[in-house]
Automatic annotation (TrEMBL):
Residues 1-18 form the signal peptide. Residues 197-338 form the Thioredoxin domain. InterPro entries: Thioredoxin-like_sf, Thioredoxin_domain. The keyword Ribonucleoprotein does not apply. This is Thioredoxin domain-containing protein. The keyword Signal applies. Keywords: Signal.
Amino acid sequence: MHRPVLALLAALACLTLAACGGGGGESEAPSDPIEQVPEDTPGLREAVKEARKPDATSFPPVEGKTLQQIADLVRSGPQAALATSVLTTGENRFTFGVIGQDGKPIYGPTAIYVAPTPEQPAQGPFAAPADILLTQDRYKSKQAATDTDPFAAVYAAQVEFDKAGQWAVLVATRRDGQLVGAPTQVKVVTKAQDKVPDVGEKAPRVATDTLETVKGDETLLDTRDPVSDMHTDFATVVGKKPVALLFATPQLCQSRVCGPVADIALQMRAKYGKQVEFIHQEVFVDNNQQKGLRPPLQAFNLPTEPWLFVIDKQGKVTARLEGSFGVDAFEAAVRTAL
């Protein structure tokens, strides 16, 4: 299974958040996710707070410059770790991390620039707000509860690509009063080449695993510790009520971002569970990577994981998120079906 998020994970080995509370009760989620960012690391909360609200006008304007000319205006050093693999012509949610030379994540106001090649005119800057990955303690896994260096947030920008092919990307972040940059490149495909169900399309009516289908073996149903109770059969509810369907493997995901999204799903269910059915589907047959993907992932044509699909009561996809997504993106996706 191809995992572009491995770049994010290899660089962010500290990101081991699975989900720790039980099934999660019907209580309101916190109004501001910034409250979950630890205060014991000096400057962390303030840095993430600033990173959540970047101002595109504070970054160098393109004014006909090439991407290379924009890159010449920033200081090199950090690396961009991509968390999105499926990019198509048109508008995309582009997610990534920024990693310093010390291997630790960098948080600060961030934007990205793109161009087919570094020598062609740049497009941007596209603001990339930081999205917090941390939840209330009651929704964390045992792993997350004991993690002494949690990864706090991931960046996401809305970027439009006007043609398929290779694209050059420059990530620009303000840190300690300086603008630092990280180059990378991505492949963009046409809409026709994208086989993953998209917004506006009918979701495949596929049966997802329940305690009955795994013959009562909770360890096969869910790698989360402790196991959640988000395991209703998707086929029995789709078309009847809104559904938030999460494909993730908290224990086996090599990107190590699957755990946090399971935590966030539980936290979102505490707020929206009366209106939306939240379902978590594990990824590998018998939780064995050598046995391949489970049938629900094959039905959705998923090339990576994790993925979140929000489906309205008519059975149409209203939102899809890939790779790494935090509290803000998850909640915004859920609300598209209400």
